[in-house]
Amino acid sequence: MNGFKKSPWILHYDASSCNGCDIETLACLTPVFDVERLGVVNTGNPKHADIFLVTGAVNEQSKHVIRNLYRQLPEPKVVVAVGACAATGGIFRECYNISGGVDCVVPVDVYVPGCAARPEAIIDGVVKGLAVMEEKQTAMAADRGNLDQTLYAAADVGDAPSILSLAKAAALTEALLHDDDSFPALKRTLPQLQQEFDWRLFFKAVVNGKIIGAISGRLTGDTVSVNGPAVHPYFRNSDVAGRMLEEVERAFRGAKQFEVCIGNKSEQLLLELVKAGYLSFKTEVFTPKITWVYLRKEKK
Amino acid sequence: MNAWLRLIVYLVAAPVIGGLLAGWDRRVSARMQSRQGPPILQPFYDVLKLWQKQNLAVFPSQNYYILSFLLLVIFTGALFFAGSDLLLVIFAFTTAAIFFVLGAYKASSPYSFIGAERELIQIMAYEPMVLLTAIGMYMVTKTFYVRGIASHGTMLVLVLPGVFLGFVYALEIKFRKSPFDLSSSHHAHQELVRGITTEFSGRTLAMIEVAHWYESVFLLGWVYLFFAASPVVGVVMSLVVYAFVVLVDNVFARLKWQTALRSAWAVTAVLGFGNIVILSLLP
Amino acid sequence: MMLVLALVLVPCLAGVILFCLRAERPRRTVVVAVTLAVCAGCVALACRPPLDLGELPVSRHAINLGMTAIEALMGLYILYVGVRARHFLIVALMLAQGAVVGWFEWTAGADADAGLALFVDKFSIVMALINGIVGGGICLYALGYMREYHTEAHRDVPDRRPLFFSLLFVFMGAMFGLVFANALPWLFFFWEITTLCSFLLIGYTQTEEARRNALRALVMNLAGGLSFALAMVWFYRNSHTLGLQQLIYSGHAIALLPAALLCFAGITKAAQCPFSSWLLGAMVAPTPVSAMLHSSTMVKAGVYLVLRMAPVITGTTVGLMVAVVGGVTFLYGSLAAITTPEAKRVLAYSTVANLGLVVLCGGIGTYEAVWAGVLLIIFHATAKCLLFLCVGVVEHKLHSRNIEDMSGLILYMPRVAVMMMIGMAGMSLAPFGMLISKWAALRAVVDAHPLLCFFIVFGSSATLFFWVKWMGKLVEVVRPQSRLIKEISLDESVALYGLSLVTFTACLFFPFFSTQFIEPYVAGIYGESGFLGQGNTLIMVIMMVVVMLFPLSFLSHGRGVKLVDPYLGGGNLQGGPSFAGAAGEVENVTLHNYYMTSIINEILLTRVAGLCAVGLLLAMFASALL
Is A32 helix (H, G, I), strand (E, B) or coil? Predict the structure, then answer.
């Protein structure tokens, strides 16, 4: 028994809504619809919530807030976009200040259409979100349970699609940390990645048949330039990243130096690299919010 | 029932009873608001879900304070139901509450900070009445030991009516219910977001919930002491008092902390201390 | 006998030597050597308390003459001070005191029979241990502290360190004399020395404020001294003896008025209402002075005297009045401490409050109360001293005494912050010492005068508030801090670590202290003693274990926890505790404690408490005279 289906706690955020969908959402709490009988509680606090209910289209200010709130939601989390504006931008889509629906900032799991969305539809959306959450939780638990059976192997071109989505998910986390989505990895396409297999060596970490970690290296002279490691968000607190760095080092045994480049706010990644023996030697400003930090490890 | 057996029953049964009480509270409150309300087992579903969520924190050490809080609350109830010195029970409980407050301070967010300050003010508001209750019981039964008080012949509420009323006032504060839900808010009323519990998630939040259950059982056990001469009346009155607390929660709006503090101390001085003065004047 | 005399004389001699030493190195050697010697002496005395002290090496008469001469010199100096400051009251009190003592010496001095001049019992051993170990720690600390005081923090204050250290050690010797004295004139002599040391040390910085506060302390302590002198004279006139032990065991008819007068002296020395302003003003002095004189040792002399008088005043109106004065002071100090953000002022109010609790116990005077009172003395001395020393270090490094500036201290100065937490836990948390003492005091009060519990229940709730909000301020971390490289000097760290260890062991081994020292003393006077009981001791131990689990939990390094920003309404901005405000501006997070100044008016509270206390003291004297 998971408990998630019986106790969904909601964080309700109004991105730039006209408040129509918000009124309908709050109407769900009233005696007519009484969503508390399903165990739903409207917490105002992301750290207590499971379901992130967003109404309204997204503008620059709310992008920033949505990123912050999404980061402060504990896993497993589900995003429900309520109303036409949250789904696609609605009738405000062409406005100069509107970037679009919620999915231009964070990945959305459930879309509830309507303008304004009816309470029954909202409740239905929340219930569908619960099903998604149960799936995520089962996957998370199963993967975590089998973490000690992780397979570390060299990857080939056939793995490119999974590695691409993994890299994008990892880059999304970095983008949230930096509050800036100009990371190159977010915009990489599949053909580009497939081409990279020609001159880079890729490694993967596999659990339950799913790729949860990837790293690549390319030898130029004495130096190996390392790209990654990219680890699935569920496995950030394990030693997958460290193991993959070891794999790369083992593959390029003759090399004298290993270099890697990360964003300045990626503290967890930085910790992993420092633990593995990397030291920072250069910084380079990329955008006002992102500064690349270059780290190097000397091999004796 | 000997002390060890009572202890084990307490350790196992208290969270169950506390959870059922919390669920019943939510259901009755919903019914008072013309709603259906969640199932009575809802708090257990909540804790189960929270146990499996990721643990987010501002500082890792804030969770250790909460673990100490839980252990000390369990310890307090264990002391109480094993029948030992009531003053030590009160002091152990205060220590537990302090750990809870320190955990919220550690989290260093504005909401948890103000929640922590208000929780401290609440502690300051109810502590005199709680101590006076123990003193009143001592003056009647000549012992501070819970097992002595529980086995006393006369029904304590008859000799300590003022103390009892003051204690119920203090209970309202201890249960963190309106009009004294200053530091954290359950259900839908939010003023400080989640106040003292804002920065806790996952297992830690589950631990806070469970600690509140142990706390409820301990407090209702204390209400029972007032009626201990007749066990059936005692249990019934504990539930009646809890129902009263829930009723007051739904009827009153939140007080400002100044009013809460002043009114609590005034009630303590007049009802609680007044009762003690009268007791000391009687032969 | 020799050990006792050594404990009294060696520090005094050291004081004289230190007055002549200008250089740092020799001063350090003398201080360290004497401190170690004194500590060893105290411990030796505790391990093998002498049953019979034996004869004095020099004739009693000669010593009495010497004391009279020194007292006369001190009196003249104080008169000079009073005249120079145009302080009428000082001059008047000193003249009155001089007249009383002079007349006494003239009419009776030579053949005054005081029985034993010096004596040693368990209570005086406890006080001696506190004075030696805690006081010694403070002297060590003062080496490093005063060096930094003059070289960095307060360069404008003239460097009179030789005088400073000599006064500290003379004072330590006088305290030993005080607790070992049985002859009332000898006690009076040492009492007056402590008054003079306090006056000189408060005025150390020689600023206008310091001078004013020193004079205030002098006036109030002189009033106490006058009261002491009157007590001596009256007791002698009615019993022709001058021994403390004789006073305690004389009947009410003879002993009640002297006991009331001596309690008055104790009340002024311990800064109870209405005399608490001198202690608060004394906080202008450097931290070692505040710690040694005004929290751990000198003010303890005041409550020591009140506790000694307990068997005499128990059950009388005098005792009741004394107890209520103590209760009023406890409530007053606890409430006032909430309103101030200045660290040393909070500590001063807390000291006044805790001393009030001891006076409450002394006034009640039953065996339970005295047991509780002695426990309170022990735990308060160690924990409060630790706190004062830590605050001194923090003040030097932060250049501020404000609690609000101590935010994040757990990262900036982790060791000092942890020791402060130990001190504060020692003052307010179960199962640490003060809680046990409060438990004992509450029981004593309920058994004797239940209505007095009013003060304890309200006061102890208030103390909880200001301690925990200070603790919270230390652990909260709003902006990232890096650790200060050199937190404390060697001398300071030896003292701080030592005192933390002492606080800790005092809590851990308090059953041992209770059974070895306190219970025999109380049982010796009353025939029975309060005690914790085996069951309760076990509970305390279990609780200690549970609380100790807390620091152990840090070993797990927060495994499985993901660190995120605090909730700021989703407006978190990267890089620190700031958020996007209303117009997109960057706002910083600041957390400021509640000081409740709107509902607790410090000045009004002081006036009301003072008035109540004056009324109570008048009632006390009235009932003693009738």
Answer: coil
